[in-house]
Write a structure and sequence with these properties.
404 residues, alpha/beta, TIM Barrel, 8-stranded parallel beta sheet, two-stranded antiparallel ribbon, 44% helix, 12% strand, globular
């Protein structure tokens, strides 16, 4: 074969369009092919204590979180071929209203610590995706401010019961007045879990300027400038915020909560009521009998009980025990659209994600949350097409098996 120098006409078709890109964050986000990629970008962009607050879990080995992720890795899908999958409908009914995706953006505490855009940015993305978003009692944006910022968003409010029940009533009434249609009662936090990363990092709220944090400023100047030039970082619904998260939970939350409190809340709230933090079939049945419209099988992202049950593994038994009396959602360990589809096949109504969008918030503010939402939406659609299923309702146990 003879050799020759390439001519410009041969080379030109191989050169893509060269355009200057001034927005470095968007360039980096576009290169992220998965939530795992977004997580890696987030790790580089924020201080270690902030990343670990989101990424970490309870216990020395964080087993609850790792087991949840390994459970999804056991899934082997069983695809059907020769099916017309030219059109796929990813929408589904969640607590009486249609959502464009079988997803919920779960409530997360201290969201503005990840990025000053905080809860309103997450809410705007949820609205564009056509899914609900839950605001936390430990949120950094008030009930009313989120409603004003994103009026078209389907808003849920997550409630922790505190020793001051009167204040709990006030929060519920404020949520109703601001157009929130669902209360999420979280029941797995009578006390704070042992989160070793937070202890080692000395994380306080707000972050304190110590020799360690001052040194960290040099490595993450963008995050610190963002923090110091925006509104003070505080909880929006709690007056006392000093100290660690564990300190706050110990001061404010009520460890004496019982099923009688669920009855009280059911009588005080006429909207939809979901109980989050269910980890056994028995408790799922119990809260259903006491008026819950839905349950979220959750271990608080592995951040509370060490070596807790795996929500994905108990999902089929809970679904069977509850029949169609209440809706069953699930969270924990979800890092991809494949995880979402697997949960739907096992009987979940929808899947709640928290860490995933917080990685996006840390990586690039609202644009990062949007990237995570788009990735999950694309992956859910692709998974359904490759499984030969064209609707959420067509996903069932016959779509997968669990490998040893």
């Amino acid at each position: 074969m003879s050799r020759r120098l390439p001519r410009w006409g041969d080379v030109r078709p191989l050169i893509g369009e060269i355009r200057p890109r001034w927005d470095r964050t968007r360039v980096l986000l576009e290169r992220c092919a998965s939530v795992a990629d977004v997580r890696a970008l987030a790790r580089r962009r924020v201080p270690r204590a902030v990343f670990d607050y989101t990424d970490g879990a309870a216990g020395l080995d964080e087993a609850s979180l790792h087991r949840a992720r390994r459970a999804f890795a056991r899934v082997e899908f069983q695809p059907r071929v020769l099916q017309d999958v030219s059109a796929v409908d990813t929408s589904t009914m969640i607590l009486g209203e249609r959502a464009a995706l079988p997803l919920v953006f779960a409530p997360t505490g201290f969201t503005r610590m990840m990025h000053s855009a905080g809860e309103p940015a997450v809410g705007r993305v949820a609205q564009r995706l056509g899914i609900p978003y839950g605001l936390s009692t430990l949120g950094t944006t008030s009930i009313e401010d989120l409603a004003a910022s994103v009026p078209g968003l389907r808003r849920w409010f997550q409630l922790y019961l505190m020793t001051d029940r009167g204040y709990g009533v006030e929060l519920v009434e404020r949520a109703g007045a601001a157009g929130y249609d669902t209360i999420i009662l979280t029941v797995d936090t009578p006390v704070a879990g042992r989160r070793h990363r937070d202890v080692r990092n000395g994380l306080t709220i707000p972050p304190q300027l110590t020799p360690r944090t001052l040194a960290d400023m040099a490595a993450h100047p963008r995050w610190w400038i963002n923090l110091l030039t925006s509104d003070p970082l505080t909880f929006a619904t709690l007056a006392s915020t000093e100290g660690t998260v564990a300190d706050l939970i110990g001061r404010v939350f009520d460890p004496a909560i019982t099923v009688a409190d669920l009855d009280w809340l059911r009588s005080a709230w006429s909207g939809r009521l979901v109980v989050k933090g269910i980890q056994t079939v028995e408790d799922a049945v119990l809260v259903a009998e006491h008026g819950a419209d839905g349950v979220i099988l959750s271990t608080h992202g592995g951040r509370q009980l060490e070596r807790a049950p795996v929500p994905f593994e108990i999902l089929p038994r809970v679904r069977e025990a509850l029949d169609d009396r209440v809706e069953v959602l699930i969270d924990g360990g979800v890092m991809s659209g494949a995880d979402v589809v697997a949960a739907l096949c096992q009987g979940a109504t929808a899947v709640a994600v928290g860490r995933a969008y917080l990685y996006g918030l840390m990586a690039g503010g609202e644009a990062g949350v949007q990237r995570v939402g788009d990735l999950l939406a694309q992956e859910i659609t692709t998974m359904m097409q490759l499984l030969g299923r064209t609707s959420v309702a067509s996903l069932g146990p016959d779509c997968l098996r669990l490998r040893d």
